[in-house]
Amino acid sequence: MKILSMIILLFFIPIATSTTIYNITLKDQKIFVNVTFDLTSEQKYDIWRISWEIPQQYEIISIKDEKGDISYTKYPTYIYFETNRLYSNKRVINIQYFLKDAISNEYDPLKKVQLYLSGFEDDKTIINVNLPGLISGDASYGFTEYFAGDFAQFVGKGAADIILFYSFSGREYENYLLFGPADLSVADNLFSLVTNITGLEKPYKRFPVVVLDDDNFKQKVQPWGTASHTRGGLILIKNSIANSPYNVSTLLHETTHGINAKILKWNQVNSTWFEEGTASFIEFLSNQHLGLEQSELFGQEKTIKQDKERIILKSKGDRNELWIYYKEGKDFMYYWNPSENDKRDFGYAFSELVIRYSVKKNGIDKIKDAYKKLSQIEKPIKDPIESTNIILSALDTNFMPCYSVDRNKFDECLNEINQQKLILPKSTDVQKTNKQIVNETIEIQQEHIIEEEKNNTNFIFQIIQKIKSILESFFKPRN
Fold first, then answer.
1. pLDDT band at 368, cuts 50/70/90?
2. 221 with 94, same domain?
3. What's the pLDDT score for residue 443?
């Protein structure tokens, strides 16, 4: 994620306050950016010299301040300009430009927009987006998000990194927008499972879902797995899974990642056991609800009949490997994520086990309680052990699920978890974020400038008159 800033140059002018407001829309199939910012310093200055970062391919339309157009010098990732002369401690500047490379057509007709927007560190930035066909999106940590129809607003401090998805086509469901051959009706009807378990509302209008040929998925997304959630809400799924009975549990698994991506922005570590554990738990619940056979967790292989074929379902995770992990005091799960080939299967299974063990101990509503606590964390956490301890506390559990010095009790616990028959909550109180649009505007006031220039002129005139009076009295002949 890029870190942006706006640099003010003029003998280190001390900026007391500033507000930056972006208005972004689509014009001529390009992203049009209209940004206005006001600056207040502790002292008055004639000219402000500014470098404004735009780390994308851009085309400047205009730069203006209170006195009119401003000339500028263009550089690859920023522009440099000097304001028109105006003796003041308050300035308002407007920049309008097109972004040439902000829209990606990789999954056309689904469009992806990537925005890197500068702002003043520790000062308010408001980003208003009016984008026809807007579906979903995501802003960097520290920004609130509001989605309504074709409008989105992001409010925070400093620079922002934003991803948006929009389209004028696709097969609409209540919770998904499908691109490709599949039927998402059952997954759409079961969508409430995710919100009921987590207690969290849907973050935007719909999740865009793109069905990819299996080989294409391996090349574009990852060589393992059946589906993937990417930032901004996009779900990519293999064609073979999208058209199987397991498309429901797979989609709800990825949907849970979309919920987690919003609530866990503070969790800035590479370890993803909680994200994968909760998503796998939702997957388990949906398969159980639909009566679909699924693998045991650190259990035994199962042979099932499908049509006229016999299919072997291997255990998710090896029980002896888990026993050795505990006995040898290993701790790599504090740092685990699915990219590690040799630990992937164990990691997925262990992550799910932590969640299901918490449910065994505390009941299924504990998951919702945990999400409520995790949603209240207001500072970024970058240490994986600290992150894990926070999450475990919210779940009221530990990081050695089913462990016992007695192997028989260890086996018994795992067997009980594999025999879980959980009743799905039919409805729950979903956390409402009470999001409201921030209605703030910044306008360039020409009248204010004229009046201020008059005041400055009068002030200078008065000084000249006083000097003239002093000189006249000094040179006046004495009687």
1. very high
2. no
3. 78
| Domain, as residue range, for 293 | 264-423
Angle at 146 between CA 260 and CA 142, to 5 degrees: 60
Q: How many residues does the chain have?
A: 479
Q: What is the pLDDT of residue 225?
A: 92
What's the gap between Cα 202 and its chain centre? 14
Cα–Cα dist 414/311, whole Å: 23
Say if residue 175 is in the same domain as residue 205. yes
Share of the chain above pLDDT 90, in %: 81
Q: What is d(CA 124, CA 231) in angstroms, rounded to the nearest whole number?
A: 24
Whether 460 shows a pLDDT value over 90: the answer reads no
CA distance 357 to 284: 13
Quick one: tokens of 201? 């509302």
Q: In this structure, is residue 249 part of a structural domain?
A: yes
Residue of 99, 152, 376 lying closest to 264 (CA atoms): 376
For residue 60, give both structure tokens. Answer: 């400047």
Contact 93, 83 (CB under 8 A): yes
Q: DSSP letter at 333?
A: G
The reported pTM is: 0.88
* 129-150: burial string, b at 16+ Cβ within 10 Å, e else: bebebbbbbbbbebbebbbeeb
- Are 2 and 55 spatial neighbours (Cβ–Cβ below 8 Å)? yes
Please state, rounded to an integer, the average pLDDT across all residues of the chain.
90
Q: What is the pLDDT of residue 472?
A: 60
Per-residue tokens: 25? 């829309």
List the strands of the sheet with 171-172, edge to edge: 171-172, 176-179, 207-212, 235-238, 227-229
Q: Is 374 exposed, middle or buried (0-12, 13-18, 19+ CB in 10 A)?
A: buried
Report residue 320 as tokens: 């002896």
47 contacts 83 by C-beta, under 8 angstroms: yes
Q: Has residue 245 got a pLDDT over 70? A: yes
Q: Which helix (H) or strand (E) holds 252?
A: helix 247-263
Among the candidates 376, 394, 423, a domain finishes at 423
pLDDT of residue 193: 97
Tell me: do 25 and 159 sit in the same domain. yes
> At what angle are helices 407-418 and 319-327 packed, to 10 degrees?
130
| Angstrom distance (rounded) from CA 415 to CA 298 | 9
Is the predicted pLDDT of residue 474 greater than 90, yes or no? no
As a whole number of angstroms, the distance between CA 136 and CA 165 comes to 5
